[in-house]
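Propose amino acids for all 133 sites.
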């Protein structure tokens, strides 16, 4: 921009610098917003990877649900992002899938817990297998 400003003044077009400066500021803002989105996507992917590493007995669905809600809120708080774009909609869809999955997971955990309470399961190395009635 400095070279452009210098040449604009030398050749008598000083007013052409103002729109170029505004365009550069807008580009910088868009880059900052996209970096924020990609950083958030990285956080979402790391959180999902942590969920996949949980063993059955250590899953806390309420905590997972709270974390997913926070991630969705942070995603919606990122300003200046094209919400119809594939990057935004992709991460938003993943978070929606997790939000829908957690209640189903909660039901499975309750079912196996009830079966264990009724001694309707077999413990195989830390995994409970439900016996058929």
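Proposal:
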């Amino acid at each position: 921009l400095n070279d452009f400003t210098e040449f604009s003044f030398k050749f008598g077009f000083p007013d052409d610098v103002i729109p170029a400066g505004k365009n550069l500021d807008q580009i910088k803002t868009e880059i900052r917003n996209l970096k924020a989105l990609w950083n958030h996507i990285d956080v979402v992917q790391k959180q999902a990877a942590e969920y996949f590493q949980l063993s059955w007995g250590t899953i806390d669905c309420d905590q997972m649900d709270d974390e997913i809600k926070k991630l969705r809120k942070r995603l919606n708080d990122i300003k200046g992002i094209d919400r119809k774009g594939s990057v935004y909609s992709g991460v938003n869809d993943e978070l929606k899938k997790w939000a829908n999955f957690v209640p189903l997971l909660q039901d499975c955990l309750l079912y196996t817990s009830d079966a264990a309470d009724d001694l309707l399961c077999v413990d195989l190395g830390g995994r409970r297998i439900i016996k058929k009635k």
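The chain has a mean pLDDT of 79. The CA atoms of residues 53 and 84 lie 32 Å apart.
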